[in-house]
Design goal:
By secondary structure, the chain is an alpha+beta fold. The chain has six helices and ten strands, in the order H-H-E-E-E-H-E-E-E-E-E-E-E-H-H-H. A hairpin with a 6-residue loop joins strand 6 (110-120) and strand 7 (127-133).
Length: 217
């Protein structure tokens, strides 16, 4: 537990851009569609690839933050999500959430707990939201396979004229008996679909017109 806490704090304060920059040269372009670019990367610590998707969106930082923090609405845009809820909230910038995801038969549905930290660089206005899975935070649910390891990071970088570069990095071990080759074969589908759905969800008034007091747009 102490090791997990240390790693989570490390992610919180270092930020995902710094973490992945050490291996930026190894990102491999996979596809581009609907204005979304997809990359994968092999890392030394796991046979499972990490995925990076990015898209330029005409939106606001407040809209993006409001959307990702609206955990109960994840089922409308996060790939395969069937249910999500906040377990603990520590101010405006840290929270713990629980999510359940559907899987195609005969694979069992998955669930996970994620510790999340939000940060904005006041000089550049860049926002990062880093999540780190904690498989032991609560007991496993019946009929679900607990995701043993996960980290993800949203990065929102203002580009001027109301445009923001939205980047999503994900690395996840689904656990259970899903073969690694199958995970790697389909690993980009979820992040691609998620960021595409996000761009559409942001058009809803509750997000498009949002203004977050603790975020500098």
């Amino acid at each position: 537990m102490l090791r997990k806490l240390f790693v989570w704090i490390f992610f919180m304060y270092l930020g995902c851009n710094t973490i992945i920059s050490q291996e930026d040269n190894s990102w491999k372009f996979v596809r581009e569609d609907h204005g979304i670019q997809v990359f994968t990367n092999k890392t030394a610590d796991s046979p499972i690839k990490e995925v990076k998707t990015q898209m330029l969106m005409h939106t606001t930082l407040s809209a993006l933050v409001t959307l990702i923090k609206d955990v109960g609405n994840h089922h409308n845009w996060v790939y395969a999500n069937k249910n999500a809820e906040i377990l603990k909230k520590d101010g405006d910038f840290s929270w713990v959430f629980y999510g359940q995801s559907e899987a195609p038969w005969p694979v069992s549905d998955r669930d996970m707990v994620a510790l999340t930290n939000l940060h904005q660089d006041l000089s550049t206005k860049v926002i990062t939201s880093v999540s780190f899975g904690d498989a032991d935070y609560i007991p496993e649910a019946e009929d679900f396979v607990r995701v043993p390891e996960m980290y993800s990071c949203w990065t929102f970088t203002p580009k001027g004229c109301g445009n923001i570069l939205v980047e999503f990095v994900l690395k996840i071990d689904l656990g259970g008996n899903v073969p690694t080759w199958l995970v790697n074969l389909t690993i980009s589908k979820g992040p691609f679909t998620t960021i595409l759905n996000m761009s559409q969800e942001l058009e809803k008034p509750e997000y498009k017109n949002a203004k977050v007091s603790y975020i500098s747009d």
